[in-house]
Amino acid sequence: MFVTEFLDYFKEGNGYTSMIVSLLVGVTLCSGPISSAFVNRYGCRPVTIAGTLLASTCIALSYFAQNILTLIFTIGIGAGFGFGLIYLPAIVSVTMYFEKYRSLATGIAVCGSGLGTFIFSPLSAYLIETYGWRGTMLIIGGITLNCIIFGATFKPLQSGPAKLPENTLSRSHSVGQQINGTYSNESINSKVPSIDSTAAPNGIRTAVSHQNITEDGNKLKSRSASGTMYRPDILYQGSLASIPDHATSRFDVRPKGGYGSLRRTNNGESQDFSDPIDEGFCQFYWPSETECEAETKKQCKILGFSCSPETRDTFDEMMDFELFKDWVFIIFVVSNFCTSIGFNVPYVYLPSVAKDYKLSITESSTLLGIIGIANTVGRIILGYFSDKAYVNRLLVYNICLTVCGISTVLSVFCVDFMSLAVYSAFFGFTIGAYVGLTSVILVDLLGLDKLTNAFGLLLLFQGIASLAGPPLAGWISDQTGSYTPGFLLAGIMIIISGVILFLIPPLQKYYAKRNKVIENNNVS
């Protein structure tokens, strides 16, 4: 709604004006790795509150804007970064609290954007008609400020003993512990906790910590890598119970030079496997006090800025480009890039299309509201069925994107409110797969241990594509005098994003066949 007002008020082109929205979305997505580092260091609550203060202040300052460039900085960059600091902690908080019903909980949580579109589209239209776009900016800034209250409810989970759930592995083993270069035997009996440690599928949990013992053996220091973002499932929006076996990360725990007992607890029954542990399979290394202090004092930098080792590690994990050696991931990134180019075009330009067809501002806002409510329904339904064992999630994802793209192409034939409303419903429902199933599909394709890395890279490319999509469609509209080419471009890009994903299953079969041949050759 605001883009149409800015076009009328500032008399600038569609491409230039739409940079406000494209930067807002792009900066929100691209700030994901930075937001993750802040969450890991400070927690979800303070990061959310800080993001709220930044976003609401920048939106309110837009009241004084005298040109589009000012709005680009206040709304696009300032509010965009603030919303980035709000969005990721909100998702992370839900995944921290839910495991079995995570898919449903996350589906309900992310419905906020769909409901927000449904509610705020007509509300913004009413406020603009009543107070003008400047007054509406002040009101929206005040409404955004309420996120401080919601952020304050993000109560951190307390670390402590957790009840061992069913179908969970527990282990006991004797290992050699190195104390300043020497190994001493220490008996370790551990149960893998449920919540306050790193999560993996099928009930397996691991905790990562580094302990330092001085030479006299009396003084013990502990430094735990238990930051929020160290959990490999922290960005996974589906139920952990629904993760297929092939998507689990390798859980190899065989200490050097010891004996181990691996016991699966399931419905009260246990089975022991007491075998000698292969030497050299895994080593438990306890760094010396000097090494711990040296690492703590070590100066780390990201893009020239000083940061803590934890922040550096989180950023490095999300921005590790090693995944681009995997053609399956490359195809998925290209698909997401194409989807992101077309994703925001209907949101930005559908009100302008409605205006060209002489529809009222109320009808224009209703179209966006239909997208919002259909998107909400789509996320819930698709999220629910994605947890069913008989559902091929990748196929559902591919079909939804393809149908979404086709409907966007056909939208150029919609010339009245009813036909545009039908398109809005189709677009909103089917694009829900793109938003709700991305993390689930990533785990299916790459495994849970690669999710944080893959999601970080996806956010980067989604952000870049979001920066390009609306301005490109707007520039084409400026050159042709019509929004039709822009919607055709958006639809074609979304169709491409769905169609190319059909290449993944045969590629997976090829990799499986090749790996089997390699294994057979190694055995022989």
UniProtKB/TrEMBL annotation:
Domain Major facilitator superfamily (MFS) profile: 1-159, 328-524
PROSITE patterns per the UniProt record, alphabetical: MFS
Keyword Transmembrane helix annotated: yes
Alphabetized UniProt keyword annotations: Membrane, Transmembrane, Transmembrane helix
GO MF annotation: an example: monocarboxylic acid transmembrane transporter activity
InterPro entries assigned: MFS, MFS_dom, MFS_trans_sf, Proton-linked_MCT
Biased composition regions of type Polar residues, renumbered to the chain: 180-200
Xref: Pfam families: MFS_1 (PF07690)
Family annotation (CDD domains): MFS_MCT_SLC16 (cd17352)
Renumbered residue ranges of the record's region Disordered: 180-201
GO cellular component, one term: membrane
Membrane-topology descriptor: Multi-pass membrane protein
Identification of the protein by name: Major facilitator superfamily (MFS) profile domain-containing protein
